[in-house]
Design brief:
Radius of gyration of chain B: 24 Å
Oligomer: heterodimer
Number of helices of chain B: 12
Number of helices of chain A: 14
Distance between the termini of chain A: 41 Å
Order of helices and strands of chain B: HHHHHHHHHHHH
Largest sheet of chain A: none
Strand content of chain B: under 5%
Strand content of chain A: under 5%
Mean pLDDT of chain A: 84
Low-confidence stretches of chain B: none
Distance between the termini of chain B: 6 Å
Order of helices and strands of chain A: HHHHHHHHHHHHHH
Shape of chain B: globular
Largest sheet of chain B: none
Chain lengths: 307, 324
């Protein structure tokens, strides 16, 4: 995946964030419910900061992310004024790598989530709406998919290719991550399909495809949004893990996962190269969880009260 | 009940069979060339052909599939390409280690998570709940292997309280009496199990808090309070019984999570288990090992879910009466 794709992906992330914020701002009750949780508001703010950092990487990163600066004099230096987060074993500036790594990690998270949520929502809607044999077949596939822990499925896939291109990597993560979403969507659709307005649409002669796209999917938006927010976090954790094993994003391209992996061998002498990217992941995933909680409350009136 | 159990067993078997079939075809339809992992000099094609013949890779796919299934039924996972031993042998060594690690982690996960969740629910929206909520959210959001590295750094490198990896001390272990050996094992188990257990406990606590809050809001709890029972009795006897059901569901759900974590934590702590076996095999393109581990992990997940289902049936009278 080249720089253009990455920039596109990160713009997409920014767009999604703005879209969430816009929707919240036009609907007062929703906004009130969302911002009633300070954690959700803080999470949205932190995400926005990270996306801005990723977008502005060339301007906020003082050094090139992948080129060693001074392999003799600047190896594994602790944080200082010149290098706010220190330097790594190849004398690269950790802050610069972190900022550029944000592009890679956030894009992978978002793109893979989009694949997973699209497939999951579609499969769930088809199974729940059409029922009969379609439902039976799709849900048996989901049963099998959920029985294999995702990382083993990905390890098997990665074994097959010499070096997995980044685009394929993203696709694989997406295609192994839709099972849970489809179950949630299916359950919602099953209860929706007997509603009067769906019957009305059917009586007016609308086909299944039109009903699913126009009437069913928009009404299961809440669980879809929530599993999307959680999905980005899961993908980022998975990407980190696979990159740590050396199977994900290949160096010298920085991702938060392979930064941790680079630092792991020098944990005792230069802990900052490992600690900071891990904290960045934790911060983003925490924010995503907080936003997901807020969205769940804002979009689903039934949950009002007890959380 | 019996009919239900038979149906569930059949479904579990079908799922395992599907996983076996899927991994087999995935592995064999892939573009990569096995038996040539990182060969430096070009290898004589005759030797490659000889090796392919030896491992049966020159046979038609369906013949290989049939042979694989027959062998699996006999507990034979084939020969490892890279380890020069049978996969079953390698698994026999690795699986118990993973089971020890995940079982210890699961105990920490469930006990600590359950206690925290209940404590938080009974103190909901007060300082301890908010503080613990933050800590559990952090642990839940952290990459497991990163937490492992940090724990290793603090307790292994800086404080030197615990060893930095492996299952036993290579020099001392065999010189010790049995009690010392047991201690040595526990000492090595502590950090990896704690890492895995803490991350799991964070998730369990968040789930249990929500489940307990839901139970505490129900009418029978209000009735119990109205009867004049002490708050302690209301929480620990009346509410807890109902919240226990989610405990069973969670135990089943935790297994895939723990197995995933184990792959990475085993690598961090040089723990010779299934996960590390698989991670190493991936680099050597050792198909049979990766397949066997994937299948093994799925079997564990399916068994875990089955067990949780059965326990749930036993524990919840409402299902027994209505579901059947």
């Amino acid at each position: 995946m080249n720089a253009a794709t990455l920039s596109f992906a990160i713009v997409l992330v920014a767009f999604l964030l703005v879209e969430v914020a816009r929707r919240l701002s036009t609907r007062t009750t929703m906004r009130r419910r969302f911002f009633r949780q300070p954690a959700a508001a803080l999470g949205l703010f932190i995400l926005a900061v990270f996306v801005l950092l990723a977008l502005a990487a060339p301007w906020v990163a003082p050094y090139p992310p992948s080129r060693p600066l001074d392999i003799v004099g600047l190896q594994d230096r602790p944080p200082s004024l010149l290098h706010p987060l220190g330097t790594d074993v190849y004398s690269r500036d950790v802050w610069s790598r972190l900022v550029y790594g944000a592009r890679v990690s956030l894009s992978i998270g978002t793109l893979a989530m989009l694949v997973a949520v699209s497939v999951g929502a579609l499969v769930g809607a088809l199974a729940g709406y059409l029922r009969s044999w379609v439902d039976a077949i799709l849900m048996r596939i989901v049963d099998v998919g959920l029985a294999v822990p995702r990382i083993f499925l990905l390890l098997s896939c990665v074994t097959l290719w010499e070096a997995v291109p980044l685009a394929l990597f993203v696709l694989l993560i997406g295609l192994t991550g839709w099972f849970a979403t489809s179950r949630i969507v299916r359950a919602e659709v099953l209860s929706l399909r007997e509603r009067d307005y769906i019957r009305g649409a059917r009586a007016l002669g609308a086909g299944s495809g039109r009903i699913i796209v126009r009437h069913v999917l928009p009404n299961v938006a809440a669980p879809i949004f929530v599993s999307a927010a959680l999905g980005i976090g899961n993908v980022m954790l998975l990407e980190a893990g696979l990159s740590f094993l050396g199977l994900g994003v290949q160096p010298p391209t920085p991702s938060w996962g392979n930064m941790i992996a680079d630092g792991a061998a020098h944990l005792a002498t230069a802990p900052w190269t490992t600690v900071f990217p891990g904290l960045a992941i934790a911060l983003v995933v925490m924010s995503l969880h907080a936003v997901a909680d807020g969205l769940r409350d804002a979009l689903d009136p039934r949950r009002e009260g007890w959380t | 009940m019996i009919a239900w159990l038979v149906r569930r067993l059949a479904a579990a078997l079908a799922i395992v069979f599907a996983v076996v079939t899927f991994t087999f075809f995935l592995m064999h339809l892939a573009p990569g060339q096995p038996l040539l992992p990182g060969a430096e000099a070009p290898v004589d094609p005759a030797i490659v052909a000889e090796l392919r013949h030896q491992f049966g890779l020159d046979r038609p796919l369906f013949v290989q599939y049939g042979k694989y299934l027959t062998a699996l039924a006999h507990g034979n996972f084939g020969e490892s390409f890279a380890l020069h031993r049978s996969v079953a042998d390698a698994l026999r060594e690795a699986v118990p280690n993973t089971l020890v690690l995940t079982a210890t982690a699961l105990s920490i996960d469930l006990l600590l998570g359950f206690a925290l969740g209940i404590y938080q629910a009974t103190h909901a929206r007060r300082m301890p709940d908010i503080g613990l909520g933050f800590v559990t959210l952090f642990l839940y959001s952290v990459p497991t292997f990163w937490l492992g590295l940090v724990v290793l750094l603090v307790f292994g490198e800086w404080l030197r309280w615990f060893p930095v990896g492996g299952m036993v001390d290579p020099a001392l272990h065999y010189a010790l009496p049995w009690i010392g050996r047991a201690g040595d094992r526990l000492w090595h188990l502590a950090l990896p199990a704690l890492t895995l257990g803490l991350v799991g406990a964070a998730g369990t606590a968040r789930y249990q808090r929500a489940a307990m809050l839901e139970v505490l809001g129900q009418d029978f709890v209000r009735t119990a309070r109205a009867k004049g029972l002490s708050e302690r009795r209301v929480v620990l006897v009346h509410a807890l019984r109902n919240a226990l059901l989610s405990f069973i569901t969670l135990a089943g759900l935790s297994l895939p999570f723990l197995l995933t974590g184990a792959v990475l934590v085993e690598t961090v702590f040089a723990w010779p288990g299934m996960g590390r076996l698989a991670a190493d095999a991936v680099f050597r393109r050792d198909y049979p090992v990766v397949m066997a581990v994937t299948i093994g992990a799925s079997v564990m997940v399916v068994l875990g879910n089955l067990l949780a289902d059965v326990l749930y049936h036993v524990a919840d009278p409402r299902i027994r009466v209505s579901g059947g």
